[in-house]
Design brief:
Largest sheet: 9 strands, mixed
Number of helices: 11
Number of domains: 3
Structural class: alpha/beta
Distance between the termini: 122 Å
């Protein structure tokens, strides 16, 4: 079961282009892997087994039709080493110009479909690679092959040619009609800058959010200490102050602070001004009810007053 190389992408074809093995579509060929004699559809001499990619090459094994005398003759020539070449019949889907090592800028077939493969006596001649038109049947002549590839490449280059506005060119730092590669590079650079800016923006927003939360907590805690708010309202006012600090502060400032007994005494709302300076015993003797009210409404002042009495005794 001799193995043949159907394509090696490292070699230039006689038509002046290179064929990328990785770009070959083999699905339909594997369903009907016919082996022809010199691309003659009337001479089916066998089939190809296990078509596969090995590195840069597309290879396949042979199986000759044992009931075909002509196929048996060709098998003998293959086994005796008289026929050693194979050739593909393909349809081109896509091509582009590439700089290839040791060759220069040449047309390269990047997407193609294998339709049939043949044994040929001279695989390096112009007929060693047969190209079919879009219908998969019509064979292209040598000059038609070149025109077909050139047409595909020109169409791609026209599609890839992009005209940008002056503002876009300035933003990207490129010319008005950039090559595709130049435009791609400029976009990638802009994308990287945008990623950096987004990260910086996220960090700044996180820091600002933390600052707002701290200010909101401080505002509400102070309001609770002053008696403007009760502890059970802390969570709702912290949320409000975080989202709208000014509105929360205006509401809190409008709420009355808790009035202590000392405040009432100083303002004379419930005790005469001359009680300023009274000690514990005097309060007890002259205004026991007032002392009881102080203990209830201003325990801090009451404790201070009582502590002063104890220290004097």
């Amino acid at each position: 079961m001799p193995t043949f190389v159907l394509n090696d992408e490292a070699n230039m074809t006689a038509h002046g282009f290179m064929l990328m093995t990785s770009g070959g579509k083999l699905e339909r060929f594997k369903e009907n892997p016919v082996m022809l004699d010199s691309h003659d559809e009337s001479k089916v001499i066998g089939k190809w087994l296990n078509p596969r990619v090995e590195g840069t090459r597309l290879v396949a094994d042979t199986e000759f039709d044992k009931d075909d005398p002509e196929a048996m003759k060709l098998q003998g020539k293959v086994e005796r080493g008289y026929i050693r070449g194979a050739s593909m019949g393909i349809r081109i889907n896509d091509a582009e110009m590439r700089d290839m090592p040791g060759v220069g800028k040449v047309p390269v077939l990047t997407d193609w479909e294998l339709l049939e493969a043949s044994l040929v006596a001279v695989p390096s001649n112009a007929g060693s690679l047969r190209l079919y038109a879009g219908d998969g049947k019509t064979l292209l002549k040598a000059e038609e092959i070149k025109l077909s590839i050139a047409s595909i490449i020109n169409q791609k280059q026209t599609m890839e040619k992009i005209t940008l506005s002056a503002e876009s060119c300035k933003a990207l730092g490129i010319g008005k009609e950039p090559e595709q590669a130049e435009l791609n590079a400029a976009i990638m650079e802009l994308s990287a800058k945008n990623t950096t800016l987004e990260a910086a923006k996220a960090a700044a927003e996180k820091e600002l959010s933390g600052h707002r939360a701290a200010l909101a907590a401080e505002l509400v805690d102070t309001a609770i200490k002053e008696g403007r708010l009760t502890a059970d309202r802390k969570e709702s006012f912290v949320k409000l102050a975080t989202s709208d600090y000014k509105q929360a502060k205006d509401i809190i400032d409008a709420l009355p602070a808790k009035e202590t007994f000392s405040d009432k005494t100083r303002t004379g709302s419930k005790a005469p001004a001359d009680r300023e300076g009274w000690d514990y015993m005097r309060w007890l003797k002259e205004d026991g009810k007032g002392l009881t009210a102080m203990q209830k409404n201003d325990p801090e002042a009451f404790a201070t007053l009582k502590a002063g009495y104890k220290s004097n005794n």
